[in-house]
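Give me the 3D structure for glycogen phosphorylase.
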Amino acid sequence: MKAIRRFTVRPVLPDPLRPLSDLARNLRWSWHAETRDLFQSVDPERWAASEGDPVRLLGSVSPARLAELAEDRRFLRRLTAVVDDLNDYVTGERWYQAQPAGLPAAVAYFSPEFGVAAALPQYSGGLGILAGDHLKAASDLGVPLIGVGLLYRHGYFRQSLSRDGWQQEHYPVLDPNELPVALLNEPDGTPAQVSLALPGGRRLHARIWLAQVGRVPLLMLDSDVEENDLGERGVTDRLYGGGSEHRLLQEMLLGIGGVRAVRTYCRLTGHPEPEVFHTNEGHAGFLGLERIAELCAQGLDFDSALEAVRAGTVFTTHTPVPAGIDRFDRELVAHHFGPDAELPSIDVERVLRLGMETYPGGEPNLFNMAVMGLRLGQRANGVSLLHGHVSREMFSGLWPGFDPDEVPITSVTNGVHAPTWVAPEVFRLGARQIGAQRTEDALTVGASDRWDAVADIPDQDIWELRRNLREQLVDEVRARLRASWRQRGAGTAELGWIDGVLDPDVLTIGFARRVPSYKRLTLMLRDRDRLMELLLHPERPLQIVVAGKAHPADDGGKRLVQELVRFADDPRVRHRIVFLPDYGMAMAQKLYPGCDIWLNNPLRPLEACGTSGMKAALNGCLNLSVLDGWWDEWFQPDFGWAIPTADGVGTDPDRRDDIEAAALYDLLEQRVAPRFYERGQHGLPDRWIEMVRQTLTLLGPKVLAGRMVREYVERLYAPAAQAHRAMDPDSARELAAWKGRVRAAWHEVKVDHVETSATTATAELGTTLALRVRVALGALGPDDVEVQAVSGRVDTQDRIADAEAVPLKPAGAPDPDGRWVYEGPLSLDRTGPYGYTVRILPAHRLLASGAELGLVAVPSEETGEGAGVLMR
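Predicted structure for glycogen phosphorylase (872 residues):
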């Protein structure tokens, strides 16, 4: 029979055990071993049954056991020590508090998904895990962050397989009362709410759930409340589900409702108001509109409010392809804004102008969330060095006239939260070497460039650690595989073979990620006979553990999963290759440490960063990857292998896959497997162990989320906070008026004449030329512009590479025609083909970059030829 109503019955903890409830509600337990050990000791069997979730554990422990623990002095001493440690962690000074004054009082960090812990399943893949690691690292560093997301009642789907290997999706209902979250309440005890206006006089209401992530509050908006009609209740039903309007409403709730939730939280708790707003991908872009509306309500006009909002906004893009960006039909967006809907004080056309693709190659009727993010954020970044380059190319249409290298999008390479992803055994090995506190500091703050202490760990200890972790993975895989086959309809009698799946002494390769086509889940199957030979090699066998979810609407991705599963079902190889369904954080925490090789073979350059290989590396696993994302930036032969890419083989994807798969097989057969199996004089694989050591020494400090968050603080949050403070109402009005004046007058700005003291097309290194430029500025003056000489090496098409820009100075007053003369030296500081040009850019003290307005004036072809701008 089915219940007509559901309750969550909470246990009544004896007074001495009340602190357990507080410990369970702070998600620091998910990365703090002592807290987890304490909960495990409450009831080891129930801890395992609850899958390591303290809230579920406390809901299932018997009253008799609780009474027993309340009298157990040893347990109570441990409880007191863990509670004191948490209190010290959340209140004590950390890295951020030791920095010079001027950092933001608070930063609001918006993301559509957060992967903090398996017990809070509000993530689908890398974006969410990255966001969760960002919060955890910010907490470790003491950064005053407020996370903002949505609470999805079904989360992302759970994955199982049919008998023939087809992915099946399940959406379990999540009861917030059974999650490590609590409602944010008003002083009178009623739940705090935010609401959005919908067309036709309706409203979308949402409650605010609070998850405490160490020091960092995470606010999660939930539309499943009684005040909403059925349609509105379903807005936060599931992550990345539904059609266009459903997604638009989710993103309006995240951005606009999220700002209102932050204001409510700060009002109720006294938390400092954020000076910086960080948009993690475009989904939360509407937050800028809500902040503009706030300032308009305080008396600013739209243009001035836009400048004030931009100054304190950071936008991070995670996608390297236009298809990965949320885009909405113009009319759908217009329907949800304006007098009869949300933000009625803002002209709908102004809203639309922020997101429309009004640039060459754009779709003029589509509203692009990333484009809005870039127009609303004065600072923007990609998530690896290569992805920064790809992003500058992809969005260069927003800055016409500028080379992609000058597009104002920088990069901060992602990192991973080591305490979450490093196996306890790896941590203990480090603690044995340098002490627990130093190990913890190295993994969280990550202020050093190298972990040289790894050099002192004996080879034997490293090899025993790696085998121990591999053995744990084998046990985990067998248990999960057995459960998966049961779901697929197999009986116990059919599954005896699972006891022989994988071998703790065989080279183990891991491959786990989402399954879009560009990640090429099945590249390893390109030549099945060759793969079988590698798996079944008599002296140097391989074994592979694969996991991954295809998006529910992606039948192509599901076919890839099925293809892999069917190969892994083959009785000839099923002991050597397995597919594990329902990839998530809990599986990942076992998978990364237990693998010897982490495989990644995306189509370059479509992997923005990719962080799974980072998590593997922190556990001494070596990377074997295409040079894409972070691996393109940090690869060295000392600690891994690069799969060659067939970039020059036209655009035939089949040919490219054949070439790259063959290169992968060659690497595995000729380089990777021999190194793993060869033994030195002490019976150990000395060269393999040295690569593990180099991975930990050189990659370890780089791949930390602590390093990443420190970079965000120093390179983006601090400048954004300073710009925010400088942009008081008067400055905002001044900048908006100046931009309007410059845009209106720019058509009159021209480079009229360029001359130089060079008399020939060759010159000696070290020569300084005198440069003289005549420019027309129209209604603008020298205070509105900067005239620059741009010089550097030139290629065969006379394009300047590694350009250096030097400002020129006005020489006197304008001539009778209103032309200005600018002069300056040009130093020839490098040999070979060399060239220069001049250009005029808008200049104002409040601009973050000369490219900010996307305006530039350069010489015409005739002017350039007359100046003799090239020397060879």
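The chain has 29 helices and 28 strands. Let me know if you want a second pass.
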